[in-house]
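Example 3.2
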Amino acid sequence: MKITFISDTHGKHNQITKDLPGGDILIHAGDFMNSGYFKQEATEFFKWFDAIDIYDTKVLIAGNHDRWMEADPEAAKGVLTGYKTIEYLQDEQVTLYYDGPNGDFPEDNVRIYGSPWQPEFCNWAFNLPRNGDKMKAYWDAIPNHTDILVTHGPPFGFLDLPGIGKPMNVGCELLRYRIDELRPKIHVFGHIHGSAGYYFNGHTHFFNASVLNEQYVYVNSPFSFEWDNITNEITWLH
């Protein structure tokens, strides 16, 4: 199947349209808003995301800039009901059935789980105390047989260097522990613009899909590739 990952568009999503090749799955790993306070910011993005008609499935999670999504979740969900092509995940799973409506061959199905949380930093959205019980509870809730994990922030040690000032890993330690247990086939995130890139540790493909750099300039093309969900092999499209 053909997959595209993007993250951290921060209101500049229109610049990316030309670089979306189409395929089976498009995933946005959060921070689609900029200031994040205003409903209009979100609805402008939703309209853009909903209008993309070259993917069979489009998955979206929130990030730390998407304040309105956390401050007024009922209103956000209400607005999202008007966009039928968007699968918004907030500590939820969606299963894509690739062998009939009942998934006659479960190994062919793709289970995608999305969560917006990350260790607290300043007064952002979806922040929780680092290494706290609440954070652990959210990561423990990730289903054991997740194929594609979508979080806004990275796990500790993987593509989590900010790229400014003194280099230091800022990813979530508790998420890293859970990743080591789960071994998902793919983990996509963003948040740390300076570490946009790809890494494979032998069993999990890690993607920091931030498309903007630390200066919020669009410099990183979306990740697009073909993925064999049985063998977990990927082939780059560009």
